Amino acid sequence: MNHVPPELKRVVADAEELGVTLLGVCGPQPDAPEELARLEGEYQEFIASGNHGDMNYLAKFAPLKYRAETLLPNCRSVLMFGLNYYREDAVDAGSGRKLDAAPASGRIARYARGRDYHKTFGKKLLHILQQLQQTYPEDSFRRFTDSGPLAERSFAAATGACVTGRNTLSISPLYGSYFFLGEVLSTHQFPDFVTVPAGQGCPRGCRACINVCPTGALSAPYRMDARSCISYLTIEHKGLIPVDLQEALGDMVFGCDLCQEVCPLNAVRRPTTEPDLLMSIAGDAISLSEILRIKTHEEMTARFGGSPLMRSGRRGMLRNACVAAANLGAQELLDDLLRLSSDEDELVAQAAAHARERLIQDA
Ligand code: SF4
Fold first, then answer.
1. How distant is the alpha carbon of residue 149 from its chain centre?
2. Each residue's pLDDT tens digit, 128-164
3. Nearest to 90 by CA among 98, 82, 79
């Protein structure tokens, strides 16, 4: 770790005690004015091309993205924090087989297997914020963790603690890309600081993430078309999964880790020690038949409440499970799909009818 300036010692210690890392500190804009104009221009292009899909909030809050002072007047410093979420796949104690290799089950992205990080990380940042407020009563602070419009990756890169990989993710030498970003905005000016400098980033010539992406969402280095990203399609997208992309989803029913799994910069990964993230609310994989038998929002909440899966809700998870069932050739689920093809939720009914047709054709 770099030498910690005296003003930041308490923050670093508080963060460590809470199991998070102060990655670094930068000013209220991630770049000099000319570079900022370029960043904002690129982002406008991304929005204008419709790459953000259904995520209309990205367009709405675009002007705030690179300007922390629009979220906290007189903001002078942005303190960026990281929380490691990596967890190994669960392995069956008897056979040594990965549990997500069970037949007819849907895979869950690593970050979503335990409790919702917004709550867990948000509480830790609140604690840090309260300590700061006590130390600097005249100053103001605000915290976010993927809960505001700030371009967290750009600010993380601005501290020097992370690079943005060709897969568009923040990568740190502490965690690889398996970590959450969160930040505290401050009107108190802290010295710029980086805990561990990020280094060079992507090795020359590496295109592993681009090559592995089954939908071509990484259309070029550093360019992500959210509309074909499996994470977007299974979590944020509100309608049917486009037919031409369905097969590429394979058994993934919530998120996707493929561009992380192949990344050589993730060789540094190590399991998180955060109990909330190690819980198995969703776990590595869920039986598709279990998902397809969830009848109501209440049943969904009883089973997955407190986990990120609630973002997709019953209708999203059932839609995704229908696609996975057809992709896996799960003929044993035909009866469930028949029942669901008259579900009162039209999205679920259409997804089930389509999956059933695919299974019958493939029989
Ligand atoms: S897989 Fe290779 S190109 Fe992609 S983010 Fe990792 S190092 Fe960069």
1. 15
2. 999 999 999 999 999 999 888 899 999 999 999 999 9
3. 98
Tell me which residue has its CA closest to atom 8 in ligand 1.
202
Same domain? 23 vs 53? yes
Residue 203 CA: which ligand 1 atom is closest?
7
Number of domains in the chain: 2
Q: Are residues 36 and 138 in the same domain?
A: yes
Rounded mean pLDDT of the chain?
Answer: 93
Q: Which of 146, 225, 251, 336 is catalytic?
A: 146
* Residue closest by Cα to atom 6 of ligand 1: 263
Q: Is 115 in the pocket of ligand 1 (CB under 6 A)?
A: no
The model's pTM is 0.92
In a shared domain, residues 255 and 291: yes
pLDDT band at residue 93, thresholds of 50, 70 and 90? Answer: low
State if residue 209 touches ligand 1 by the CB under 6 angstroms criterion: yes
Which strand ranges, in their side-by-side order, compose the sheet holding 193-194? 141-144, 179-186, 77-84, 21-26, 193-194
Of 139, 169, 194, which residue constitutes the final position of a domain? 194
Ligand 1 centre and the CA of 224: distance in Å? 13
Rounded to an integer, the average pLDDT of 217-240 is 93
Specify the pairing of strand 105-108 against strand 252-254. parallel
Domain hosting 357: range is 208-260+280-362
Give a three-class secondary structure readout of 91-121.
ECCCCCCEHHHCCCEEEECHHHCCCCHHHHH
Is 289 a residue whose pLDDT tops 90? yes
- In this prediction, residues 31-35 reach a mean pLDDT of 81
pLDDT of residue 59: 80
Confidence band, pLDDT 50/70/90 cuts, at residue 45: confident
264 CA from centroid of ligand 1 (Å):
7
Q: How far is the CA of 209 from the centre of ligand 1 (A)?
A: 6
How far does the centroid of ligand 1 lie from the alpha carbon of residue 167, in Å?
A: 6
Residues in the chain, total = 363
Share of the chain above pLDDT 70, in %: 97
CA distances, 14 to each of 115, 124, 130, 274 (Å): 22, 9, 11, 15
Q: Which residue has the tokens 């598709």?
A: 288
- Atom index in ligand 1 nearest the CA of residue 262 equals 1
146 is catalytic: yes
The preferred substitution site among 163, 206, 223 for testing ligand 1, maximizing ligand atoms within 8 Å of CB, is: 206
**Is residue 222 a part of any domain in this protein?**
yes
